[in-house]
Amino acid sequence: MQTPENVQHKLRELAADGKTLNCYIYDTSEMCNKIKLLTDIMPAGVEVFYAMKANPHAAFLAAALKADARGIEIASLGEAEKAVAAGFDASRLIYTGPGKSPEELSWAVENGIRTVHIESLTEAYRLNAIAAAAGKTQDILLRINADFDIHEAQTTFSGGSKKFGVDEEKLADVLPQILALDSLNFRGLHVYAASGVLCVNDLLKNCQLVFGMAKQIEADFDGVICDTIDFGGGFGVDYLETSHDFDPQAYADGLQHLIEEYGYQGRTFFLELGRYLAADSGWFCTEILDIKDSRGKKQVICAGGINHFRRPAALAINHPLALVRLQREKLFDSQEEIRNESVYFGGPLCTGADKLANDVYVEAADVGDIAVFGLAGAYGLTMSNMEFLSHERPQEIVI
Ligand SMILES: *Cc1c(COP(=O)(O)O)cnc(C)c1O
Question: What residues make up the catalytic site (predicted)?
Answer without folding.
Answer: 350 (proton donor)
